[in-house]
Amino acid sequence: MSLHIKPFSANDSNIEGLKIISAKMATDDRGTVRELFRGSVYSDILPDTVTGWKQINLTRTKRGAVRGLHGEAMSKLVTVAFGSVLGAYVDTRPDSKTFGAVQTVHITPGIQVFVPQGVCNGFQALEDTEYLYFFDNEWTPGMPGTALCPLDPELGIKWPISIDTSDLNQISEKDSKAPTFKELRKLLRMN
Question: Which among 8, 11, 74, 91 has the fewest CB atoms less than 10 Å away?
Answer without folding.
Answer: 11
